[in-house]
Amino acid sequence: MCLNNICMSAFLQMCNLPIKVVCRANAEYMSPSGKVPFIHVGNQVVSELGPIVQFVKAKGHSLSDGLDEVQKAEMKAYMELVNNMLLTAELYLQWCDDATVGEITLARYGSPYPWPLNHILAYQKQWEVKRKMKAIGWGNKTLDQVLEDVDQCCQALSQRLGTQPYFFNKHLNIWKFTVHVLSKSGLENFEHYFTIMPTELDALVFGHLYTILTTQMTNDELSEKVKNYSNLLAFCRRIEQHYFGKGSSSIRLS
């Protein structure tokens, strides 16, 4: 499953919505925006994670309703960080690193298509990505510089996550329980709020980190940057096992 599909699947699983994942070689060309993932609900087709989140929210399902305005702004800032750093780094590694392109990417991307279409579409995609990299100032970056950007992003995510299971503690009253405790002074009431639930940021970060940790590359430099942060590894395992029903994680430590 590709990166964007993992993000979308994680988000929909967290919303407790039933999904059926269908893999198509021409998915990009079926999408209204030309990008994946997209969902087909009744007679509506919605593509890309952001619009899908908004579409699902309009149907009454939101993972961030329990956040206050400051938390929502912070969540959006971290989502921008992930998209600007991790997504761009993944595209760079796949399409701008000569070793990865020659040994893995061209064959993987072109595999669903017959010759010569497989080569034509793969080189067209590479040209599009390189043009994007040049436009955002990544065209002349070295691999070491890209890996340093990834490390800085992971460090920021690790610090924000800390020892929490998810990135934000939401203020929800629907999980309120009153516990009656008998003490020397009589019966006392303690109100507990169970608010440990994921947000859209958790789905996005999981999709990116899980992809980095499990995708075959020509070397392990990228995944090793993530593995330096034990709480991010634990975060990925937790979501994989809880939302994707895996008793054991497919994330390798070495």
TrEMBL record:
This is Metaxin-2 isoform X3. Its main location: mitochondrion. The keyword Thylakoid does not apply. Residues 193-239 form the Metaxin glutathione S-transferase domain. Keywords: Membrane, Mitochondrion, Mitochondrion outer membrane, Protein transport, Transport. The gene is MTX2. It is found in: Mitochondrion outer membrane. Residues 9-126 form the Mitochondrial outer membrane transport complex Sam37/metaxin N-terminal domain. Pfam families: GST_C_6, Tom37. PANTHER family: METAXIN RELATED, METAXIN-2.
